[in-house]
Amino acid sequence: MNRREALKGTAMILGYALTGSTIATLIQSCEPGSKLSWTPQVISEGQAKTLSALIDRILPSTDTPGGIEVGVDRFIDKILCQVFPVDVQESFSTGIDIFNQYAKAQYGQQFIKLSHVEQDAIISAVEEKSDPLPGSLWNLSVKDAADFPFYRMTKELALIGYFQSERISKEVLKYNPIPGPYIGCLPYSEVGSNWSE
């Protein structure tokens, strides 16, 4: 199974756990744009650049748009501001700094200054040693900022933002709109791409 197929499968699983208001926020939040043509609300500009570089490696542009192209970095900052409590916002911000410190310890430079190969090596190492998110992401309680699951939270929010963005909804995904008639044996090829309208 290739990476895109795995991500599409994950999106369908994540879709079942989202409420209508969350989905509306997600779709409105992901607007295409350049790397940092936006003003972060929760994280600093330097942290936003690190987050953008991380998202660009997790969801790079291929034959489909990448995470940066659909505004996933902005979405994460916006949902942190509008949904999560201050302690989670602060821990997420600290998590970016700890992630950057790890990159600097391994290669002597901040994450954004590393080559793609080095960035991928950092991500693989962090992926390997990261524990799964504890229970529900939305009820996350923070005790120690050093133990905050920054990478896992970033990855989950990136997938949610990516697959709920308008551009991906219309250009990539095929989904039978709900509400609508139930057709139990509808061929996937006939569903169409405009699932968000």
UniProtKB/TrEMBL annotation:
Protein name: Gluconate 2-dehydrogenase subunit 3 family protein
InterPro entries listed in its UniProt record: Gluconate_2DH_su3
Origin species: Anditalea andensis
Pfam families: Gluconate_2-dh3
